[in-house]
Amino acid sequence: MAAKPGSAPTTYSPSLTQKTRPPIFKGNDLDWVRPDGRGFHQCRPAFFRTGAVNSASGSAYAEFGNTKVIVSVFGPRESKKAMMYSDIGRLNCNVSYTTFATPVRGQGSDHKEFSSMLHKALEGAIMLETFPKTTVDVFALVLESGGSDLPVVISCASLALADAGIMMYDLVAAVSVSCLGKNLVIDPILEEESYQDGSLMLTCMPSRYEVTQLIFTGEWSTPDINEAMQLCLDACGKLGKVMRSCLKEATSASQE
Amino acid sequence: MMQVRPNLDYEGPKSHQHHRAFVFGFEYGFLKEKLDQKEAAKRANEQLGFVFDIGPNPWSKPATSSFGCKPSLVKMEYVSPEGLRLDGRRPMEMRQIRAEIGTVARADGSAVFEMGNTKVIAAVYGPREVQNRSQQISDQALVRCEYSMANFSTGDRMRKPKGDRRSTEISLVIRQTMEACILTHLMPRSQIDIFVQVLQADGGTRSACINAATLALADAGIPMRDIVTSCSAGYLNSTPLLDLNYIEDSAGGPDVTVGILPKLDKVTLLQMDAKLPLDIFENVMGLATEGCKAVANYIREVLLENTKQLEYRRGL
Amino acid sequence: MEVDREDGRTQNQLRPLACSRNVLHRAHGSASWYQGDTKVLAAVYGPKAGARKNENPEKACIEVIWKPKTGQTGKLEKEYEMILKRTLQSICILTVNPNTTTSIIIQVVNDDGALLPCAINAACVALVDAGIPMKHLAVAICCCVAKSGYVIMDPTKLEEQKMKSFAYLVFPNSVHSVLPEGSVQGEPMEHGIVTSVTHGIMSVDDYFYCLERGCAASAKLSDFLRRSLQRHPTDSSKAG
Amino acid sequence: MVGLSVGEKHFIQGGIAQDLRSDGRKRLTYRPIYVETGVIPQAHGSARIRLGATDVIASVKAELGKPSALQPDKGKIAIYVDCSPTAAPMFEGRGGEELSTELSVALQRCLLGGKSGSAGSGIDPSSLVIVEGKVCWDLYIDGLVISSDGNLLDALGAAIKAALSNTGIPKVNVASETSGDEQPEVNISDEEFLQFDTSGIPVIVTLTKVGRHYIVDATSEEESQISSAISISINRKGHICGLTKRGGAGLDPSIILDMISVAKHVSEQLINKLDSEIAAAEANEEES
Amino acid sequence: MGLPNASGDLSTEVEVDAFRRLFPLRFYEKHLSESIRPDARPLGRARDTTIALGAVASANGSALAKIGSTTMLAAIKMEVMTPSTETPDEGCVAIDFHMPPICSPIVRPGRPAEAAPVVSKQLSDTILSSGMISLKELCLVSGKAAWMAYLDIYCLDADGALFDTALLSAVAAFSHLEIPVVSLNDDGKIVLLSEEQEGMSEREPVNKEKRKLTLCSIPFSLTCILHKNYILADPTAEEESIMETLVTIVLDSSSQLVSLYKPGGPVLAYTSAIQDCIAITRQRVKELQKILEEAISVMEVD
After folding, report:
1. D139 — phi, psi (to 5°)?
2. Polar residues: which segments have biased composition (chain A) (predicted)?
């Protein structure tokens, strides 16, 4: 009645009057500050909680600054796609965004690229042979995007898998590094990501010290790669500890 | 009767910047007389031989291509007073055709077929086990076909999703046409997949796809009643035109696509949009049929050549 | 309380009704139902082997497909499908044909108000025509509440838009059988509501007033329904 | 995808261990590369690459567009890959979509560099701008897989490099200065074409780890033996312009660094080989 | 397990669980005859309800509502549109309800849940017909520009009473909504004014006064299950799947009936049952009003 169906007027979101915002750093200026005041090699405080969704077999919620993510794990359950017999299980991943996750209102559609990256980052850590003929579904929803979305989704998903009791070799921790001018900044926020010259995302199993997924963009020389990878590996190690303690807390809480 | 034979010795033009029509040029003189006395009489006044560099070339400049924009329907001259078409062909002249067998190494059978600037690849997989059990037919083979167009196949870059209505329709047409010539009863409970991929579209893709599919099926060694060949013809400026290109095709005039089994002398496919008086239709269809026969002869030669090569390789 | 209605009807008067069944030859059961200028065609296919999606080893499944007059199915159509499905599920005996699916297709021919009730009535007749086992019939009616508080029955589209609020109500048709009356607390069965959908603000008292009036009007509808079902399937029936 | 028996698997693995693969190659040798340019006449540039039984076509089309508000001084480049069902029946319908997206994303990452668009990109997007903030070229790069026998990413990368070398973009003259929001009028020249400087475009080298060894240019039989693979794009300067890991198993960081250095070594030869093939193909095209 | 006979003995617990799965209806009926539900609630009591305002920083207004474990996240983004010629001084509200695959095992990616469009329609009907928001308040420049409020509600965890929770989160998001200060620029476009600009800018903000919407007669809802003579308020997903007759009643703060929604179901609703349901809903509305007020006051203290 009040709403006129069928007529979708075109809308725009009002922008700031200033044409362009000044870039967060200038050229070769080495002593700029990050917008949130962190050091270059300092990650945002990470917050994890398992058991966020009751109706799922396992779930986790992660919050890194403004990046907020929920991951639910369902299964192992019957494969929906009529697949041929397989003696190992299937992992099915899906990442989607809410319409209000990004500063400009989006469509809230599936993110195919992230879905396949999530799959690749996790498959090496899961013991697929423990659930033959069945599927484990890992669904992620980015509630709010604040930069480094994919690493947060991956770390959160591995916690959700652990919460669901899926057998894994190790947790998977993921961290990304952005290259801005000559500086490497870890765990970039959205604004930094939009100015980056290059980026590196590394996912690893911290206890086994193995890399499950590695992605570079931009131009890198070998010493830069060494430095960035070491940075990520160290950060993953620390993140792994935070994730482990979150799991421990959850178990001790449920035992009480 | 004289054979209508494509000039096989002639190497095709390497550069499309100088695209010309030249195939069948002289040989078609005979066809014409046989086909249509009136047309032949009209044509008698015309000079014989080729006149090059006539008409705009739709392929020369992609950025300013007239290819993308449809020519207006109002009185456009598709046949010049000298009796030449926009690309310099005569009304009853076909574009150059070229075929190559075995282009997709991993397929059971494959072929490339070119008609002028239209270029398609066909690949055949099978006969093999039916993938979807519910589709299995107990007394004959299941024939499936998928037609797809490359993003770069048209003048304007197209961004249609896969499986739009046109593709589905052409897939169905190709499937039905090929099904009619394959001896499906010899391969019960099996499946044959025909995939055709259009690399360049310049009118007559339907025909080109059927011709390519025939070659690919033959290459895969699938038993057939006869080869199927196809060709189109249209009617513009009160002139029947053989083998329409894109501009002529999009003029909105009638477009008759015919597919025949040349040896059995049977028509398996006949499609026309727009209307045409019955007597003219007969002319146009006859013209397309002759085109089919010309294609058939060429395809036969290609297959023969291929077989000779195979023999040679086996050391026979 | 006299009310002027554009078509000269009184408050409680329904528009002319018309119903014919077995109108489609391929369908297992079909019916068309007219309420004034609102016309709906319903077709029933089934019971057929259960689709894998909604297989249920204990119960039959009912599936409703709503085809609007023009355009594509949107949220409104999805909602109507859901209401119809739940309503029909509650009047059919689902345990007789377990693991089957019965499809009901509703085609809107013309919408002039009270569309959903009209569709429910049409679907009901079509189900009978297809011989689907049912507990009882259902009759649906639309009641409108005006700003000044009076209530009118079976509104046209124009009236629907002018009024403050309206309610679609579905009542069971009384069962004439030897079985004990299925009622509670002494209320007759036809006073219970199968489905209720309201739109717009009304006071609670208004709603109960609607219920009362709707129930009374539904008796007329109920009679018509019964009469038209007793007739030979091919000849259509009309009522004023 | 490829069903292999245990014996066949051992044969392949054993061959790799002994540095003699089933088609007679060494671990770090590519199959012969055939380059053909200008295969799609209606595109601004195109090339076809054959690598054994792998056969791909890349085409470049430029359209006039408007630069994005965020980066008014840069044109837009997009890469789309399509897997034709002719290559494998499993690509039928929407079956090829997953692989197509994966390849498109990997190519974008390996060839177009970071979001700022300057570092690691094979083509400088600022060279595509005609009037800043108003008009620019949008470059659409389409890849099509016609026949597939492994190593699609390297082949597509090479095809795109060849297609870009083959590309001529018409010169555009801006008619007159316009102010405000109006779109300036532009004239597209028929005669003058601009060529890209393609020397900076990286090549993609995919190293597949089978057992303890790495191989390049794996066939699909070999790809089915993957424990993990890394695709690295390297430019002439020896800088890494992009990297993606494929295959699930975890790798020790030191192994990754080792693979990068091997890939660097391989890339030098590949770049030279590819450049000479492209030059030969171009010469061949001009001749005819 | 809130079972009276569950003495912590593992074997009985397993048996009870098996009984619950095999004979769910008998399991429930046993409880109902004792006037208690398996989660230890009396029949007429709703589950614990919480509201957290401002959960999403990137939206103009947002709220997270939880009833039991059913969780909904609602967020409003304001965009500018040109109003239609018939209503030049009215804005618009677009409401959409999403059920992403994370919320329930039934939903799979690519195929939206059946319930989502239905709840979506119900929500926009209820919110728009309740008159809670005056669309005139969304006007910026008559005939030129007006706000389009995009309200998106995401179900994060589905455990029954979806509509109730969604409506609660939507209402809470509207009460948290803060409209940005904007002004009209020379091109006739609406632009955002940042805080430091507000004072010195030569352009007058067009909506200095109208930063908050006045919400009159806020609707609240309660879903009940009718089963035999029992009325169960605020059902869980399990209860909804076993006992299929649902009645959703929406009342506004002045106890007017906004919607009475009973889509079929095997149990017929008699006048007396409806009256009972309305009475329970009245109480629940008071509860919800208090919870919302508390959430707002907590927000203001911060």
Report:
1. -100, 120
2. 8-20
pLDDT (tens digit per residue) in C181-199 = 554 455 677 788 999 999 9
Q: What is the pLDDT of residue A216?
A: 85
Query: By the 8 A CB rule, do D260 and A222 touch?
Result: yes
Report chain C residues whose CB lies below 8 A from the CB of A6: 71
Q: Which of B15, B195, B197 sits opposite D288 (nearest CB)?
A: B15
Contact E92, A8 (CB under 8 A): no
Torsion sign, CA atoms E100, E102, E105, E109: positive
Cα E67 to Cα B242: distance, rounded to the nearest angstrom: 73
Q: In the predicted model, what is the mean pLDDT of chain D?
A: 85
Size of interface A-E (CB pairs under 8 A): 146
- Nearest CB among A53, A72, A103 relative to E58 is that of A103
User: Could you list the residue range(s) of the whole structural domain that residue D220 is in?
Assistant: 6-287
Question: Could you tell me the mean pLDDT of each successive run of 10 residues in chain C, 240 residues long?
Answer: 75 90 91 93 87 74 92 90 93 88 94 93 94 90 88 89 90 65 60 90 91 89 88 58
Identify the structural domains of chain E with CATH numbers, from first to last. Answer: 45-177+212-301 (3.30.230.70)
The reported pLDDT for the residue numbered D181 is: 59
Q: Do chains B and E touch (3 or more CB pairs under 8 A)?
A: no
Angle at C137 between CA C134 and CA C139, to 5 degrees: 150
Between strands C17-21 and C29-35, the pairing is antiparallel
pLDDT tens figures, B199-256:
999 989 999 999 999 999 999 999 999 999 999 999 988 889 999 988 888 888 889 9
State which residue of chain A sits closest to C73, comparing Cα positions. A6
- pLDDT per residue over A88-115, tens digit each? 888 999 999 999 988 888 776 778 889 9
Residue A142 in this model has a pLDDT that exceeds 90: yes
Q: Hey, are the CB atoms on D244 and A194 less than 8 Å from each other? A: no
Tell me if A24 is assigned to some domain.
Answer: no
Q: How confident is the model at residue A156 (pLDDT cuts 50, 70, 90)?
A: very high
Fold for the domain defined by C17-232:
Ribosomal Protein S5; domain 2 (3.30.230)
User: Which of D44, D237, D77, D219 has the alpha carbon at shortest distance from D148?
Assistant: D219
Quick one: DSSP state of residue C4? Answer: -
Q: Would residue A197 count as lying in a domain?
A: yes
Nearest chain A residue (CA) to C162: A1
Q: Over the stretch D168-218, which tens digit does the pLDDT of each residue have?
A: 888 887 776 655 556 677 777 777 788 888 888 889 999 998 888 889 999
Nearest CB to D115; choose among A169, A194, A219: A194
Crossing angle of helices B28-35 and B37-44, in 10° steps, is: 130
- Give me the number of domains chain A comprises: 1
At E177 the three-state DSSP class reads coil
Is E157's CB within 8 Å of A55's CB?
yes
Superfamily of domain B97-314: GHMP Kinase, N-terminal domain (3.30.230.70)
**CA–CA min distance C190, chain E (Å):** 9
- Whether residue D48 contacts residue D39, with contact meaning beta carbons closer than 8 Å, is answered with yes
Pick from E152, B136, B176: which is nearest to A105 by CA?
A: E152
Rounded to 5, what percent of chain C is helix, strand, coil? 30, 30, 40
Give the pair of three-digit tokens for residue C110: 């013309």
**ipTM exceeds 0.85:** no
Q: Report the C-alpha gap between D158 and D154 in whole angstroms.
A: 6
Residue A58, in any domain of the structure: yes
Establish if D1 belongs to a structural domain: no
Classify burial at B273, counting beta carbons within 10 Å of its beta carbon; exposed 0-12, middle 13-18, buried 19 or more: exposed
Residue at A150 is within a domain: yes
Strand partners, D213: D210
